[in-house]
Recover the amino acids of this structure.
């Protein structure tokens, strides 16, 4: 529960930062769109297994297909694309710094989540060994 509360607080702070009007011609708009598409695709792929909590849902299933064949946490990647996109589109250094903070937070949340996924799904360990966490071929 505390992970979701911190996550929610970070989103609220990010959204409510004052100033810096949106520049609709910015490349950040494309980043926002890509991030949103990644999140929607990931959500659809998870289906009933989707949860904001870093523990698998009861009766959920493991998936390594769709966006999950490229990275283990595509939703977190999508959130980062959106955060960086908003920072760029609003020309906000503060939002850019907070986007980096979000990346650090989601990396920690993913580590916590992966312990539970390894316990619940025997295939997860092999999947984690061959699939990067956030960035294909990199990290």
């Amino acid at each position: 529960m505390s992970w979701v509360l911190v996550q929610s607080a970070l989103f609220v702070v990010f959204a409510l930062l004052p100033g810096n009007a949106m520049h609709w011609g910015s490349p950040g708009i494309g980043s926002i769109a890509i991030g949103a598409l990644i999140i929607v695709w990931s959500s659809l792929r998870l289906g009933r297994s989707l949860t904001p909590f870093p523990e698998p849902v009861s009766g959920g299933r493991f998936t390594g297909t769709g966006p999950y064949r490229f990275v283990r946490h595509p939703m977190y990647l999508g959130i980062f694309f959106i955060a960086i996109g908003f920072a760029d589109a609003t020309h906000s250094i503060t939002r850019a710094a907070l986007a980096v903070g979000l990346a650090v937070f989601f990396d920690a949340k993913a580590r916590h989540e992966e312990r539970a996924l390894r316990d619940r799904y025997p295939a997860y360990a092999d999947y984690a060994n061959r699939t990067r966490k956030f960035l294909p071929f990199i990290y």
Remarks:
- The first helix runs from residue 2 to 16.
- DSSP finds five helices and no strands in the chain.
